[in-house]
């Protein structure tokens, strides 16, 4: 599970009757606020003020810096629903110069804010994911056959701009309507999940970002007067929407508002999803624009076989090129004569986290032959290119077997480096081993290792403080194994 902080950036005071502390921003900076609503107005921070954008970003970045979060996520609420008139006349007069249209200026305020926060997060913690949940209709009439509130012109949210400029990692449009094939709804509006979802998918996939569809799980209930009116949908609607997302891989995931409808198993929806669409374990999709370097594979996989169980153990790999190592491991299992295919989630039998490098399989059958494979995943969900595998038959006599080690020389890290770098390599058996550094003319400039080394993983550090900047070669020789790689000082 990942932890994404869900934030509503501008709403400050929900009601004029709310109890507000004296240090609240509405008290300390009243001029930054706009009152909105009728007899019981609420306050929201004016998106047109640069100092407001700076303040909200400062708050969010305090969370990013101090907490081990995986993502930051903005709600759909920027300018208020219901439309703006001249409530922001002060900020428009101060900062709207050069803009002929106030709507364009408001959209630019939101676009600037979304982009500034993106850049701030990536400058501090580039691995933290950034997403937004816009209202499900970008513009009324887009795509053809869709009508309703236009996020573009009524709440001034231009999600297509965020996508085009790659200022988000994922988008979660709130597609809170049924699959109804364009059936006209209240006030003549037509909203069709199966029309909107493919359109959003087309926008976001064109720039290689992720789409996690927002589903209206609250509509499984019936309460027309609730803050979020509910429409008594059948549970099958949620299942059908998830299946629609998966058709042709159009969406990478789902977000349900709110989770209590699933965890509360309203109309059996929790059971229905668990037994059907969510029957198998899922792996988060990687984001290659944030990190495309996979971790190294697990090492030294071994198995202890008993009458009715198999105990697997392995070692955490060394650091990869980006200095990442495994954050979690995935164990795959097939029964003979099937073969391992890491693209089939049906073969996943266990996911272990952090430094857990052991798994006991109590579901094996006596006399049957199994193949296990273990892969590494880094914190951004890249899977190792190789895996440790082992083949065994469950017998009545305890036995211990081990997967064969392989020779492997990893790329040094960091690379380029100044002045020190680290070498990692694996030996399949004990041998006299040398690791040497050469210049491009083939002249030896340093000996890192020259000794008898045991099978397993080895790590050495090297300092090039006395060498000139440039390209060098390093070569590992162990028995008949020889491998050479380049590095830059």
Percent in strands: 25-35%
Overall shape: it is globular
Instruction: Give me the secondary-structure category.
Output: alpha+beta
Count of separate DSSP helical elements = 10
Instruction: Give the beta-strand count.
Output: 26
How many strands, what sense, and barrel or not for the largest sheet? 6 strands, parallel
Strand order of the largest sheet: 1-5-6-7-8-11
Bin the helical content: 10-25%
Write the layout of secondary structure elements.
Blueprint: E1 4-7, E2 11-13, H1 25-28, E3 33-36, E4 42-45, H2 50-66, E5 71-74, H3 89-95, H4 102-124, E6 129-132, H5 151-154, H6 159-164, E7 170-171, H7 193-205, E8 210-215, E9 222-223, E10 230-231, H8 235-246, E11 253-256, H9 259-263, H10 269-275, E12 299-305, E13 310-315, E14 328-335, E15 348-353, E16 358-361, E17 369-377, E18 388-393, E19 399-402, E20 408-409, E21 420-427, E22 431-438, E23 444-453, E24 456-463, E25 471-478, E26 481-488
Parallel strand pairs: 1-5, 5-6, 6-7, 7-8, 8-11
Antiparallel strand pairs: 2-4, 3-4, 9-10, 12-13, 12-19, 13-16, 14-15, 14-17, 17-18, 20-21, 21-24, 22-23, 22-25, 25-26
Helix pairs in contact: 2-4
């Amino acid at each position: 599970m990942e932890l994404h902080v869900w934030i509503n950036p501008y709403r400050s005071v929900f009601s004029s009757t709310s109890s507000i502390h004296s240090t609240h921003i509405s008290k300390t900076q009243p001029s930054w606020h706009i009152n909105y609503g009728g007899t019981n107005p609420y306050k929201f921070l004016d998106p047109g003020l640069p100092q407001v954008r700076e303040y909200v970003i400062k708050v969010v970045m305090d969370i990013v810096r101090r907490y081990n979060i995986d993502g930051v996520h903005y709600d759909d609420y920027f300018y208020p629903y219901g439309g703006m008139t001249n409530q922001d006349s002060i900020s428009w007069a101060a900062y709207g110069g050069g803009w002929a249209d106030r709507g364009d200026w408001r959209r630019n305020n939101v676009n600037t804010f979304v982009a500034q926060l993106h850049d701030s997060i990536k400058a501090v913690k580039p691995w933290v994911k950034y997403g937004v949940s816009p209202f499900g209709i970008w513009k009324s009439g887009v795509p053809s056959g869709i009508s309703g509130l236009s996020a573009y012109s009524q709440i001034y949210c231009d999600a297509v701009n965020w996508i085009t400029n790659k200022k988000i990692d994922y988008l979660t449009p709130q597609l809170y309507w049924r699959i109804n094939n364009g059936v006209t709804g209240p006030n003549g509006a037509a909203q069709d999940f199966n029309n909107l979802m493919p359109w959003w998918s087309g926008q976001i996939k064109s720039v290689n970002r992720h789409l996690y569809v927002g589903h209206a799980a609250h509509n499984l209930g019936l309460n027309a007067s609730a803050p979020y009116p509910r429409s008594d949908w059948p549970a099958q609607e949620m299942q059908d929407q998830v299946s629609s997302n998966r058709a042709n891989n159009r969406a990478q995931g789902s977000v349900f508002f709110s989770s209590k409808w699933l965890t509360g198993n309203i109309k059996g929806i929790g059971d229905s999803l668990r037994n059907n669409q969510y029957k198998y374990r899922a792996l988060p999709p990687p984001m290659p624009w944030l990190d495309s370097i996979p971790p190294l594979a697990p090492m030294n996989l071994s198995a202890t076989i008993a009458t009715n169980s198999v105990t697997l153990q392995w070692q955490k790999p060394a650091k990869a090129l980006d200095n990442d190592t495994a954050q979690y491991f995935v164990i795959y299992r097939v029964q003979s004569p099937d073969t391992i295919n890491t693209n089939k989630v049906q073969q996943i039998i266990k996911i272990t986290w952090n430094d857990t490098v052991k798994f006991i399989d109590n579901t094996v059958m006596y006399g049957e032959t199994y193949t296990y494979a273990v892969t590494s995943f880094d914190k951004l969900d890249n899977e190792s290119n190789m895996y440790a595998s082992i083949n065994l038959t469950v017998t009545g006599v305890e036995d211990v077997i081990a997967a064969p080690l392989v020779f492997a020389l990893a790329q040094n890290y960091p690379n380029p480096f100044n002045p020190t770098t680290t070498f990692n390599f694996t030996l399949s058996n004990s041998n006299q081993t040398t690791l040497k550094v050469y210049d491009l003319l083939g002249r030896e400039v340093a000996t890192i290792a020259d000794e008898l080394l045991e099978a397993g993983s080895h790590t050495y550090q090297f300092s090039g403080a006395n060498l000139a900047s440039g390209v060098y070669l390093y070569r590992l020789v162990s028995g008949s194994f020889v491998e050479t790689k380049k590095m830059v000082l």
